[in-house]
Design brief:
509 residues; alpha/beta; Rossmann fold; GMP Synthetase, Chain A, domain 3; 18 strands; 33% helix; 25% strand; globular; binds xanthosine-5'-monophosphate
């Protein structure tokens, strides 16, 4: 395995993806990981990520420089390189000229990271500091016009460093450079497949849980379904899933999910119908964070009450994914800014004194989908677009009433039907409708109307951390708009959301 030390770069996840795309397992840890844990992990190689700080600032993140003496190959990228050089006695300063964007890399030595790579190749730079002098034992193996030390190496100690970013697509040979590190230098074997991962993850769950009982909040989404299947394969009927219908689901969703889950997951599932409780508490609430908090709390109460009916539960299984881990823990180990209170089951383990089982913790969504397929989950479950825990409540801006839920459900059903029909359901990260707290004037059959407005949102994304609005064909949008206005009473205008994340978010609340 490869250990990636996270110095706070926005590209960390990309490094991890690239390593896994080479069929090598990797794990991301904060800089404070400590030597004991590193030794216990016994990685074949270590990658130090980039980061926004400067190494000569006291507040910049640091890891124990002892890692450079382990004899394990280390690859420093951007800040990671600068940290390596600075820790080993080299000099890092503010660059005279910041370098951001494409640069032409001139390679002087092809024996290390650049094996089989052209002498001149394009790379992507993004740095304000640069290396002024390298420590003894290092040599420069590539430069750009602006940056003399675009890359350097200490062959004896197996230390490698790149000032540019091999993990981004803008460095076209980046993946090959990483492959050279993984296979030639670290001697990794490309054995990490989903099948291998599944086997290992099942064994790990079995070892952790032993004969104890586990509960799981099943939402019908990809993540919780995959966890359910995986944990079930590990411990069988000691797993009980709880499905809470919060009354905020899409049209016929609870009914359909119940059927699919029963048919494909031959697992103990308890279905709890709690819609009234949620709707009652949401009455007259318009503030998005308040809505989220209320839904989270009611969910916890309902879930806890149901879980208490099962005796001797010690563990809670959760479908936490890697982006969730990263969103809640910053590079320095502290919490990052809370944009939205997401995880509605976050408080459960503490409240119920349960230990956590999170077998998907280091995976990305597309990897979870592949894992689901490997485990035999049907496409209906692996290829569902994400749906937020607080459901339609955060897609109804303003008050959530039964009447407004009913309007949004009808709109949403038409939208999804058309998106599926046009072949876009699997291509998009998400597509949904938002009911606005606004009315507009329209004309229908020579009559004036004064009705609701809905916004259509469709985005492309890899992991929901960033997203771009989808350039859907005009005919598809036209059909969606036309059908919604014609078929849903109470709506006379449809608008399309053309904002990306950041600075917007995917959901409106
Ligand atoms: P935002 O709106 O923050 O959403 O850009 C990112 C992704 O997360 C989903 N989402 C949630 N998922 N509980 C969830 O399980 C939540 O409270 C929640 N809020 C947003 C959202 O649909 C998108 O895929």
């Amino acid at each position: 395995m490869i250990l990636i030390i996270d110095f706070g770069s926005q590209y960390n996840q990309l490094i991890a993806r690239r390593v896994r795309e080479c069929n090598v397992f990797c794990q991301i840890e904060p800089p404070g990981i400590g030597m004991d844990k590193i030794r216990a992990l016994n990685p074949d190689g270590i990658i130090l990520s980039g980061g926004p700080a400067s190494v000569y600032e006291n507040a910049g993140p640091k890891t124990d420089p002892e890692i450079f003496n382990l004899g394990i190959p280390v690859l420093g990228i951007c800040y990671g390189l600068q940290f390596m050089i600075y820790s080993l006695g080299g000099k890092v300063n503010k660059a005279q000229k910041r370098e951001y964007g494409f640069a032409s890399l001139d390679i002087h030595d092809h024996s290390g990271l650049y094996h089989n790579i052209d002498k001149i190749t394009q790379c992507w730079m993004s740095h304000g500091d640069s290396i002024e002098s390298i420590p003894k034992g290092f040599e420069i193996d590539a430069s750009t016009e602006n940056t003399r030390v675009a890359s350097c190496v200490n062959y004896e100690k197996k230390l490698y460093g790149l000032q540019f970013h091999p993990e981004v697509h803008h460095t076209p040979k980046g993946k090959e450079i990483l492959r050279n590190f993984l296979f030639d230098i670290c001697r990794c074997k490309p054995t990490w497949t989903m099948k291998a991962f599944a086997k290992e993850a099942i064994e790990k769950v079995r070892e952790t849980v032993r004969d104890d009982k586990v509960i799981l909040g099943l939402s019908g989404g990809v993540d919780s379904s995959v966890v359910a299947l995986l944990v079930h394969k590990a411990i069988g009927d000691n797993l009980t899933c709880i499905f809470v219908d919060n009354g905020l689901l899409r049209k016929d969703e609870a009914k359909k999910l119940k059927q699919v889950l029963k048919q494909h997951l031959k697992i103990n599932i308890r279905f709890v119908n709690a819609g009234n409780l949620f709707l009652k508490d949401l009455e007259k609430v318009t503030n998005p964070e308040k809505k989220r908090k209320i839904i989270g709390k009611v969910f916890m109460d309902v879930f806890e009450a149901e879980a208490k009916k099962i005796e001797g539960v010690k563990f809670l299984a959760q479908g936490t994914l890697y982006p969730d881990v990263i969103e809640s823990v910053s590079a320095f180990g502290g919490p990052s800014a809370v944009i939205k209170s997401h995880h509605n089951v976050g408080g459960l383990p503490k409240k119920m004194k349960l230990k956590l089982v999170e077998p998907l913790k280091y995976l990305f969504k597309d990897e979870v989908r592949r894992l689901g397929t490997t485990l035999g989950l049907p496409e209906q479950l692996t290829w569902r677009q994400p749906f937020p825990g607080p459901g339609l409540a955060i897609r109804i801006i303003g008050n959530v009433t039964r009447q407004r839920l009913s309007i949004l459900r009808k709109v949403d059903a038409i939208l999804l039907e058309e998106i599926r029909q046009a072949g876009y359901y699997k291509k998009l990260w998400q597509s949904f409708a938002v009911l606005l707290p606004l009315k507009s004037v329209g004309i229908m059959g020579d009559q004036r109307t004064y009705e609701n407005i809905v916004a259509v949102r469709a985005v492309n994304s890899i992991d929901a951390m960033t997203a771009d609005w989808a350039r859907l064909p005009h005919q598809v949008l036209a059909k969606i708009s036309n059908r919604i206005i014609n078929e849903v009473r109470g709506v006379n205008r449809v608008v399309y959301d053309i904002s990306s994340k950041p600075p917007s978010t995917i959901e409106w609340e």
